[in-house]
Amino acid sequence: MRVGQIMHKDPVTITPDKRVGQALKLMQKHNIRHLPVVKDGEMVGWITSRLLREVLLASMLEVITVGDVMIEAPITVSPDTGVEEAARLMYEHKIGGMPVMEGDKLVGVITTMDLLAAFLSMLGLLRSSSRLDLLLDKDPRVLDEVTRLIKEAGGEIINIALGPTKGDKRSYLVRLTKCNLIPIIAKLKQCGYEVVDFIP
C-alpha cells in the first residue's frame, strides 16, 4: 500500500503572513493538527498544533505570524512512498504528520491516524475475524501444510503474521474470517500441531 492511496488530498493550507491565532482557528475549524504553509502555490513550510502550543503566549496570538514559527524544511514523503516507510519516518522523528510532495508540488497530507487505519485494514482488523496463535517448526513446508489443513477444516485465511522465535520454533498469528474454530483446532492438534492460543 502506498501513501498516495491513503493521504488527504487537497489539504487545508495557510500562508506564512497569517497570524498564529488564525492558524489555530483554522485547525480547530477543520479538526486538524497540521497545516502546510503555502506561498505563491509552493509549499514553504509546515506548522503543527504542538509547535504552536510550544511557542505561544496568549497575548502574542495576533502578533506572531505563521512564517515566524513554521518548520521550513519538514520531512516529506511522496505518493509512491510505502506506508511502512512513512510509519518508520513518523516513529523515528516523533512526528504526527507529513506533507506529501510530488516534486515541488504539495499533493496531500498524511497523519498517524491515516497510517493506523491503513495498518488495521491491512491486518484485517476492521472486519469481524477470528485468530489462531500457532507454534510451528521454521520449515516453510510446515506452514504450507498448516494452511492447507485450516482451509480443509473450513477456515478462510485473511493474513498470517510472524511472531517471536522460540528455540527452533516460530510463532504464527493466523487471522481468519470469523468462524467456528473448534473443528480447525481439533484438526491441527490431531496432526500434531501446537495451538498456543485463539480468539473465537
Automatic annotation (TrEMBL):
Gene3D superfamilies: CBS-domain (3.10.580.10). CDD domains: CBS_pair_AcuB_like. Signal peptide: none annotated. PROSITE patterns: CBS (PS51371). Keywords: CBS domain. InterPro entries: CBS_dom (IPR000644), CBS_dom_sf (IPR046342), Diverse_CBS-Domain (IPR051257). This is CBS domain-containing protein.
